[in-house]
C-alpha cells in the first residue's frame, strides 16, 4: 500500500482530533462579523474556497478566498487566514509579510519548525495530520475540518463528528466499477462543495495524470456537458441539482452522487453522505488509477512537497 493510501485511511481519526482542537483553540480564529480573507496555494487554496463559502453560509461575515499568488493585499480585511501544510510556501509567506502589522493573521500548518511560525500572529499546528506523500490528502481535509468545527452549526451541513462517521465508510467501501473504468471525470459542486470539486480534480491530475475538470454544478449545462458521454463520469459533491441526473443520462454519461434523491429532504436527517467523505472516494480513485498505470502516487511527476521560489 502506498503512503498516500495509508494517509487517506486515517482521515476519520484526524477529523475528530481537529474538531477537539478547534473547541479549545481561540487565538486568531475569525470572529463573527469580521471581513476575512483566506489564502493558500494548490490544494490549500481549494480548502480556502470551501471554508469561505461555509463561513458565509454560517452567517459569520463576508469571506473571500484567494490563491496566494493573486492575493489583493491592498484590500481591507479584519483578518487573514493562511493554509500551508509545509509552512514554507513562498507565496503564502509573501502574503503574511505584506499584511504583517496591518491585519491579524492566522496560519494553519503541519510543521511547527518552519518560517510560518514567525510569519503569522497565531498558528494552529495540525502536525498529527502531516504527510509523507507529496500529494496532499489528510492535511487538507483536516485543516478544513478544524475551521469547519470552529464555525459551529451551519444549516444543511453535518457536524464534523458525523462527517467522520461517513468517512469511515468512504475509506472502506468498494469504488463503483464504472467510475474506476472511466476515461474522463467531471467534478461538480455548489457553495462550499465547489472547493471540494476543484480539489478532487486536482488529486486525479496529480496522482494519476487523469483527464479531469471541475465546475460549479449549475454551470454544467453551460458548456461542460459537451464533454460527457459513454465512459465518462459526472461526479457531484453534495446536493444533486434538479434535472442534472436526467441531463447526464441523456448524453450517456455515468453519474456519481451520494446525495438524496428528494430535493425537499433535510440533509441533517436524510442519508446523504457528507461531501468531505465523498472527497475521500475521489482520493482513493486517484490512487487506484495511478497504481493501475504503474505510477507512484506518493511522488507524482513534476511536483514537490513545497514550492519555494528563488529570489
List the helices and strands and how they pair.
Blueprint: H1 3-9, H2 11-24, E1 36-40, H3 43-57, E2 63-67, E3 79-84, H4 90-99, E4 105-109, H5 116-119, E5 122-125, H6 138-151, H7 160-170, H8 177-180, E6 184-189, H9 193-208, E7 212-216, E8 232-236, H10 244-250, E9 254-257, H11 275-292
Helix pairs in contact: 1-11, 2-6, 2-7, 3-6, 3-9, 7-11, 9-11
Report strand %. 5-15%
Q: Spans of 5+ residues with little confidence (pLDDT < 50)?
A: 260-270
CATH superfamily of the largest domain: Glucose-6-phosphate isomerase like protein, domain 1
In helices, the fraction of residues equals 25-40%
Mean pLDDT: 92
Number of helical elements = 11
CATH topology category name of the largest domain = Rossmann fold
CATH architecture of the largest domain: 3-Layer(aba) Sandwich
CATH class of the largest domain: Alpha Beta
- The order of strands across the largest sheet is 2-1-3-4-5
Structural class: alpha/beta
User: How many individual β-strands?
Assistant: 9
Encode the helix/strand succession as letters: HHEHEEHEHEHHHEHEEHEH
CA-to-CA gap between the ends?
39 Å
Shape: globular
For the biggest sheet, the summary is: 5 strands, parallel
Radius of gyration: 19 Å
Q: How many separate domains?
A: 2
Domain SIS: 21-159
GO molecular function, one term: isomerase activity
InterPro entries: GlmS/AgaS_SIS, GlmS/FrlB_SIS, SIS_dom, SIS_dom_sf
Keywords: Isomerase, Repeat
Amino acid at each position: 500500500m502506498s503512503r498516500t493510501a495509508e494517509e487517506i485511511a486515517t482521515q476519520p481519526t484526524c477529523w475528530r482530533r481537529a474538531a477537539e482542537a478547534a473547541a479549545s483553540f481561540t487565538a486568531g480564529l475569525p470572529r463573527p462579523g469580521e471581513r476575512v480573507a483566506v489564502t493558500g496555494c494548490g490544494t490549500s487554496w481549494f480548502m480556502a474556497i470551501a471554508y469561505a463559502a461555509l463561513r458565509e453560509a454560517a452567517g459569520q461575515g463576508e469571506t473571500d478566498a484567494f490563491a496566494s499568488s493573486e492575493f489583493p493585499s491592498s484590500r481591507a480585511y479584519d483578518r487573514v487566514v493562511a493554509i500551508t501544510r509545509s509552512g514554507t510556501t513562498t507565496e503564502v509567506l509573501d502574503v503574511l509579510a505584506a499584511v504583517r502589522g496591518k491585519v491579524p493573521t492566522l496560519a494553519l500548518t503541519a510543521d511547527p519548525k518552519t518560517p510560518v511560525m514567525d510569519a503569522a500572529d497565531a498558528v494552529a499546528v495540525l502536525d498529527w495530520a502531516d504527510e509523507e506523500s507529496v500529494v496532499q490528502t489528510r492535511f487538507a481535509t483536516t485543516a478544513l475540518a478544524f475551521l469547519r468545527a470552529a464555525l459551529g452549526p451551519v444549516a444543511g451541513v453535518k457536524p464534523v463528528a458525523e462527517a467522520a462517521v461517513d468517512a469511515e465508510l468512504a475509506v472502506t467501501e468498494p469504488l463503483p466499477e464504472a467510475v474506476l473504468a472511466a476515461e474522463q471525470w467531471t467534478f461538480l459542486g455548489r457553495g462550499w462543495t465547489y472547493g471540494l470539486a476543484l480539489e478532487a480534480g486536482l488529486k486525479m491530475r496529480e496522482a494519476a495524470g487523469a483527464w479531469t475538470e471541475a465546475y460549479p454544478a449549475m454551470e454544467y449545462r453551460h458548456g461542460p456537458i459537451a464533454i460527457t458521454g459513454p465512459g465518462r463520469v459526472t461526479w457531484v459533491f453534495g446536493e444533486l441539482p434538479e434535472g442534472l441526473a436526467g441531463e447526464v443520462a441523456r448524453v450517456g454519461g455515468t453519474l456519481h452522487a451520494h446525495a438524496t434523491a428528494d430535493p425537499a429532504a433535510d440533509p441533517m436527517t436524510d442519508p446523504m453522505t457528507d461531501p468531505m467523505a465523498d472527497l475521500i472516494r475521489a482520493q482513493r480513485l486517484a490512487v487506484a488509477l495511478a497504481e493501475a498505470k504503474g505510477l507512484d502516487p506518493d511522488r507524482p511527476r513534476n511536483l514537490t512537497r513545497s514550492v519555494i521560489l528563488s529570489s
